[in-house]
Amino acid sequence: MIIVTIDPDGPVPVYRQLAAILRDQITSGQLEPGRPVPSEKQLGQEYGVARGTARKAIAVLRDDEHLVVTVTGRGSYVVPPEDRPDD
Amino acid sequence: MIIVTIDPDGPVPVYRQLAAILRDQITSGQLEPGRPVPSEKQLGQEYGVARGTARKAIAVLRDDEHLVVTVTGRGSYVVPPEDRPDD
DNA sequence: TCTCATTTGTTCGTATGTATC
DNA sequence: AGATACATACGAACAAATGAG
Question: Which residue's CA shows the smallest distance to C1' of C13?
Fold first, then answer.
């Protein structure tokens, strides 16, 4: 069992650490295709970071890696592997 | 007559200023036990704040001070003094 | 049962100010 | 100067619950 925590004082920015955690959950199938990613608020509470930081982590997965899509007023959802551009 | 206004630029957050205003109205009896607190929308309009800010003010009175209870789809109501935990 | 308005609940989008590194 | 991080605040959209009719 690997304990995944965030180190605010480490060399890697918090939002990138959180993005890595979520990326692992997605690629491992723990977060299934089509299912919603926890909200920015939830992620903030669960990982002890500000909403803006959680938001930035999701932005990485969405804008840079296309692992999720975001819908205003709804949330972000895991993109099925076959729908991901160059994967 | 004390004029109660909200100072958006002061050191105290707007939602706490509004919570203080409502708290005074409740403890002074101006807002009577059992009666509804103005809706989030109304408070927003009356005090010139966003609904989310009015909502946050009510959350303080409900979650931290137990001065009001909230019913989804209905509104928030003033808790009678004798029903308030440790008061 | 159905429709409608009102209200609370939740979420994202954006901006500002402050502080730190 | 720039990136990071937090708190606050406004706005918008969507959802769910309630009650009136």
Answer: A72
